[in-house]
Each structure stands twice: as C-alpha cells, then as structure tokens.
C-alpha cells in the first residue's frame, strides 16, 4: 500500500505565517495541489516559496499589481510587451506577480490554456493565483531546486524579484515559515483512518488473546532513517507487508504493546495494518533509554487512570483467601472513582503502618486488580511506575466487606 507522500498544509498554518488575505478551503486545496504538482514538497522548499509569496502579495492580500495603464506604461515595451497598454494587460499577476507577455506566453503553453495570453492579468489572478506562482518558482526558474539545496533567502529573492526589494520582510517570513513547517506537519496521512479531535485515549486493556492495547487516535510521523516495519498483526510472526519511510505520516486509532514492540494500527484500502513504532517495556510504554521511531501528534490524553494496571475483561473474580501474613484478599479487576471530598490515601502496603505515598483526589479514578481487607479498611491494589500500591476505599467490617452504615469513598465501575 505504499504511496507517494503528499503535502497537505492547513489554513491554520498559513494564518500562523501571517496570511491576512482571503483563505477558503478551495484556496488551501489549490495551494496543496500545486505544491504537489510542482514538487515544492519539503519544509525548506515550502518555507522559501511561501516567504516570497508573502512579500510579493502583501501577506496574501494582492493577486495582481495595482496601478492604471498610465502608471504601468513603463512596462509597455519590456518583457515581451510590444505596444501601448500591454504593460497593464500583462502586469504582475498571481501570488508571485507573473509579469510580461513572454512569461504569460510560456505559462499559457505549459498549462495548455491560451486564455492566459488572450485575457491577461485579470484571468491569471482569478484562475491561477497559486499555479502561476508555483510554475514560476519551480519550472520557469530554478528557485525550487536551489531551495531544496540550501539556498539563502537572498539567492531566492534575486531570482523571484530580480533584485532585493523587501528583503527583510522575506527573511522574516522565511524564519516564521521555518518554525511552522516541518516534516511532521506538512504531509497528508498515508492511511485512511480519520482523525477526531474530540476522541480521547482509553485505558489500557487486553484483547481476548491477551495482547495489551488501547484506543488512541492520533498522527504519527516517522523519524527512523530506515523506516518502520508494517505487519498484518501486531507481532513479528507474520510476513512484513511494507515499510513506512522516514517522514511518512499516518493517522492511527489503536496502540498495542506486544512481542517486544509498541505498535500503532490504522486502516488502508479497507484493511487493518500494524506498524512498529518503538521497543516496548513489555507493559504499556517504550523501553527505558530507547526512543520511539517517530513523533506522536494530536493525541488527546485527558482523565486517564491513575494506575498503570491493565484492564482485562476476561479476568475472573476469585474467592476470598489469605496472604502468608494473614491479610484477607481476592483477585478483582475493576475501576474505582473517588467521591470522597478529601480524596483517598495511597500506601505502599495495605496497612497504615507505612508512610502515605499519595492521595487519589476526588474525581480521579484508577484500574485495580486486587482487593484487600486489613487494618480497619478495604483496600484496592494496583500498579504504578513498576511498583505496587494500595488505596483505602472505605472502612471494613473486619471480615470481607464494608462497615455497616459507613460510606464507601468512591464508586466501583
């Protein structure tokens, strides 16, 4: 399912750059179309191109050069113009101010639209504001090639402007563009999975086959130089189907931890795929002292479980029994949310003898996997940061239940 990366800038990115002209979905779609068509498709190329556009168009306000025929008469016999009024007719048009009959003719020939030549600036400014600019930047000149090879703002300005007019403005726009556009946010997702900004990350759970997973809707951009492997299941037992290349971007909706790796999952062409995104700690995170194979963006992490315990719907509640030290306990998988105004105390053992580790605040919840009765309280046990902890959930009756006529400190769900 490999596909060519496609640039996909957003309205918000152009506004951040300082764009103050009109900017609709149609406009941004036209921009993205020409960026891909003319291979203005790297952060450096885009930064140079848009910084020149910002200077030439007054931050997107003007799509043609202002002035009447008398003012523009100095162009009547320049750049292929050969008569009175042609300076105005073939005035600067489009976001990079395509100017002169020779340039209009070359552009018309390239896109196979003679209306460019016969209708002049009004037609170009309305129909091809972005394409005329991209053509001039990439085809008519070598600015795009130079931009991809480390050219300076001065070098690109000399090509586009013919001089150094508004050089400081171009430099400033270029620096802003460099801070906005990078390889993690200029490309469209290669997957068909959608992104929902309102979706929230779920708790870690277990599949029926015992694989750790959670629902997580986000965008992943590959930074690993040799790419990341893609399989048809989140393990290494099957055949590798493909590789995501460096700078590839995918929108995903699930994350898994299995077989020594963290995986993300997404849909492409009605099939589900799984990509290795880093080495795992065999629990719910990346292996210590290792880096993920890319960057995660747009992940909505809010109100997650306080604990790191994984919820397993297949875990069965056991009978009450006793530890070797005589504490009553049972296996019990569930979630507990605090309703007590002052919160509930957390200890490193299910008793009050040690130092209180933390307080689970009102409204917080956690996933637990054991319940204990000891030292006058009912406790729940859970894991956090690789250690076991115990939270008081109410006063006990000294056996295996809560004290009559006493309030539990939260709700179980």
From TrEMBL:
InterPro entries: Cell_Wall_Dynamics_Protein (IPR052354), Lysozyme-like_dom_sf (IPR023346), SH3-like_bac-type (IPR003646). Residues 217-283, 334-399 form the SH3b domain. It comes from the Bacteria. This is SH3 domain-containing protein. The lineage of its organism: Bacteria, Bacillati, Bacillota, Bacilli, Bacillales. It holds the Pfam family SH3_5.
